[in-house]
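I hope you will forgive my troubling you with a question about protein structure. The matter concerns a single protein, recorded as an amino acid sequence and a row of backbone structure tokens. Please examine both parts with care and let me know of anything in them that strikes you as inconsistent. Thank you for your consideration; the sequence and its tokens are set out here:
***
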Amino acid sequence: MPFSYSSHRKFLNSTAKVLPFTPISSKSSSFFGESLMFGESRPRFGLQKITHLPNLRLKAAVKWRKELPFDNVIQRDKKLKLVLKIRKILVNQPDRIMSLRQLGKFRKDLGLTRRRRFIALLKRFPAVFEIVEEGVYSLRFRMTPEAERIYLEELRVRNEMEETSVTKLRKLLMMSLNKRILLAKVAHLKTDFGLPTEFKDTICQRYPQYFKLVSTDRGPALELTHWDPDLAVSAAEIAEEENRIRERDERNLIIDRAPKFRRVKLPKGLNLSKGENARISRFRDMPYISPYSDFSHLKSGSPEKEKHASAVVHEILSLTLEKRTLVDHLTHFREEFRFSQQLRECSSGIQICSTYR
């Protein structure tokens, strides 16, 4: 079951999404990632002292709270992705028109497992596709004039966004440990970043002053060739500076204003215990660690490393077009950013997860 991350603060995915600051043991379990270990127990009166207890495994259910507005967006997005897959197949055909029989050969690529008629599928999107009848047994389809216009407009915008796409790739490489990422991994964020379909043969080749393609034993990779300190500023740092300036201006206008207290903003109906609120507050009050800083010295699983991981996830989300992406896409970058195995646990109110089938 895939997940999706979003950087909107008004959502929280779970009351249990808090970084464990004091791990209980080193073995894994389904809830904490660790098994609960007990040391020597106190001797009972009249009984032989027990030196240890066997490993006990406690099962606990993580409470997931769905955000209906966000989940509705995900459901609509599934339909959009199907339309875009069909359109991608169609635009590669001569004159951008093809028969339904030809489309049937791409059933697996479209992720269609049920034997459903394509004519019924296409009729679900009359604003995008129109069916052309050429005889009783010959049905072809193409994009509607309006869909054709939007497609050409999209191509124009993508060409204009090339400079922005290059900047996103540079920032992604600057955050990585060795300033090098496999192209196969970058491809997972291609759509979310708004990169061209053939970005390997286009922008990756046109800007050798910023990055270059290198061969590795695991396939071609994109490597940074120039570090730009002006780009090493995260979206969170920019937002914090803007808030600081705004609050300073407000203090100049308002006299004897009561001091602000940092509160954990929660969706309606989601309540946290005092202990959970305290843990989230402690995590937020930790010094900010820039996603562009050197993190090679940070110990895996430490609060500082999880703080850095949260900053990296937040920055990646800020680079996406819709400020959200699949968690599964992020897990491909565990090696480059040293994400922990409990990647979903490091959100701490900054991102949320939404499950969908």
Notes: The first strand starts at residue 3 and ends at 6. Residues 265-355 form one domain. The radius of gyration is 26 Å.
